[in-house]
Batch of 3 targets.
Target 1
Amino acid sequence: RKEVEQDPGPFNVPEGATVAFNCTYSNSASQSFFWYRQDCRKEPKLLMSVYSSGNEDGRFTAQLNRASQYISLLIRDSKLSDSATYLCVVNKWGYQKVTFGTGTKLQVIP
Amino acid sequence: GAVVSQHPSRVICKSGTSVKIECRSLDFQATTMFWYRQFPKQSLMLMATSNEGSKATYEQGVEKDKFLINHASLTLSTLTVTSAHPEDSSFYICSAMTTGGDGSAATGELFFGEGSRLTVL
C-alpha cells in the first residue's frame, strides 16, 4: 500500500460545481498535512495547510480525519482557473519525512 | 512566505555532459532540501533528501553517482546530473523546509523552487 494515495482523476466538472478530493495516508504518526496545487509545467504551490479542526479559505475547505487517516479538499463554485493537479502532502515532522500523493487532476469545463 | 530560488530554469545540453542545478533558500535556513523529478504528465518523484553537511539520502532506484547532491550550506543545495543522456531530460524541482532555527516558524510546509527543465540532446 502506498504511504499516501490519491485518485489520479481526471475529475471533469462544469463551472460552478462543487468537487471534493480525498487523500488517504498510512502512517498514523504523520503530523502535518497540506494541499498543494500544481499547474502544468510549473512547480507546486501551497494551497492550504490542513488542521485538525478543519479550515476554510474562500471557496476551499480542507479537513483532516485522523481516525480514518484521510484528508479532504472541497472546492465550491469551481472556476476555470481551478483546473490543475492537486497534491496531497503528508509530513512526519521531526524525521523530515515528507510524502506526496500522485496528485488528482481537476479539469473545470465551461 | 519563504522563497526558494532554483537556477537555471531551463538548460539544454549535449549527451555526455554534466549539468549543475542550484537551489537556494533566500530568506530562511534550510537544513533539509528535497530534489524531485517529474516527467511529462506524471507525478512528482522524490529523488533524494539533501541534508546540510552530510550525505544525501537517495530514494530506491536513483543512482547516487549519476545524480550528485551537495548541500554545503544552510541556504544552498546543488544537484549535478553527470554524463547526461536524453532519458535524463525532465523537470527537476527542489524544495526546502523551514527549520525554525533562524526565527522562522517551523510548520513542516515545503517551499518549492521554480523548477529546472533539462533537455539532453
Note: The mean pLDDT of chain A is 90.
Target 2
Amino acid sequence: NAGVTQTPKFRVLKTGQSMTLLCAQDMNHEYMYWYRQDPGMGLRLIHYSVGEGTTAKGEVPDGYNVSRLKKQNFLLGLESAAPSQTSVYFCASSSTGTTPLYEQYFGPGTRLTVT
Amino acid sequence: EDKVVQSPLSLVVHEGDTVTLNCSYEVTNFRSLLWYKQEKKAPTFLFMLTSSGIEKKSGRLSSILDKKELFSILNITATQTGDSAIYLCASAGGNNRKLIWGLGTSLAVNP
C-alpha cells in the first residue's frame, strides 16, 4: 500500500496564481485532513472531510477551498495565492475502524512558495 | 478553548542522555493523547494513550498519561543522534475526530 500520497512535492507560484494540491489515500479511510505547518506555528488544520462529498472548515480556512468527490481523494485549492500561503502542506487520513481510533496517517507534504 | 501545550520548545542533549518531554492538555470530553515524531518529513505515529491505557513503551521510548493532572510525558532513554526530531503531542476530544496539536518540542541529540 502507498498509504497517503501528495502531488506535487514542490511548487513555486506567483501572487495571484491558482493551483490545486491532490491528496490520495488507499486505506479506505473515511476522514481526511489538510494541514499547513509553519515555523513556530505547529500544525494548523485548514479543512477536513468526514466522508465523500462532505467537507468542513478547520482553524485557518480563509483563502482555501476543498473538495472530496471520491472517498480516496481530497483536493486543496488556492484560488489566488498570496505570500502568506507559503508553507508546507500536509494531508492526513484516519479511519473509523478499531483502535487506534484517532491516529492520523500523514502524506509526505508539499512545499509551496508564493513569490 | 481546547489547547495542548508542550515544553520545552527546544532541547539539546548529548548521546546517551535521558530526556523527558512534556505535554499538558485542556480538551473538552478528552478521548486520547497521541505522540508523533517528525524528522524532515511527515509526522509518524509513536503512541496513543487513553483512559484505558495510560502507559506505553516501545524500546527506549515510553510515555505516560496523568488523567488527573492533565498531562503526558514522553521519555527517551540512552538517546541517539537518530532521535533528533520534532516531537508533537496532540489530543482528541468529543466525537469530531479532529486533533488539537501542540507546537512541538525540537530535540537535538549531539554525538
Note: Residues 92 and 99 of chain B are 5 Å apart (CA to CA).
Target 3
Amino acid sequence: EVQLLESGGGLVQPGGSLRLSCAASGFTFSSYAMTWVRQAPGKGLEWVSTISGSGGSIYKADSAKGRFTISRDNSKNTLYLQMSSLKADDTAVYYCAKDLTDYVDSAPDYWGQGTLVTVSS
Amino acid sequence: QSVLTQPPSASGTPGQRVTISCSGSSSNIGSNYAYWYQQLPGTAPKLLIYRNNQRPSGVPDRFSGSKSGTSASLAISGLRSEDEADYYCTAWDDSLSGWVFGGGTKLTVL
C-alpha cells in the first residue's frame, strides 16, 4: 500500500524558512517522479514543483522559482521541499504526491494527507 | 485566474448524469493528457481519471472522462450523495513546463 507522510509544517514568520519532508513507502521510490502541490485555505490546487526519480530533472512553478527547492533522498525514500523567503501568500496545505510514472507528463496518482504551513507574524 | 477553466459549481439529483467541463489551450490539454481529481471535504485529492479516459482500479465506472481538442470533460452518471465534492482537472503545459490546474468545480447533490 502506497503511503506518503508529510511533516515539517507549522507557523513561520514572513521572510522565514521551512523544510517539508515526505516519507514514502509501499512502492519503489526511485522509480517514480514526485510532486508537491499546495492548497491555500478555501482555494484550489496549485502545483509547486516536480522532481524525477533520479533527481536529475526538476520543474518549478513561477511562484517557487528562486525561493523553493525540491530534492529527494532515494536511500531514505524521502522527498523534501526547502522553502525560504516565505510570504503570507505561501500559507497553504502542502501535499506530497507520487506521480504515475517517471515521465514528466504523468500526473500524481497518490497523495499524502498534507501539512499546513502558516506564514504570519 | 486558473490556466484551465472549469465552472465553479454544478449540481444534480440522485441518479442523474452530470458533466463538468475543463477548457484549456493548445499548450496543455490540446497536446497532453487530461487528468481529474475528486476532493472530498477535509481530505486529500484522489485520482479519478488519468490519460483522458482511464480509471484507476477502485474508481466506479460511473465516472468517465473524455477529451476533444483543447477541452476535457468529466461525466458522473447515477449520481450519489457521496459524489458531493470538489473536482479538479489538470494537464501538463508545454509552454510553462509545469502542471496547470482548473479552479475546481463544487458538485452539489440536491
Note: Chain A has a mean pLDDT of 97.
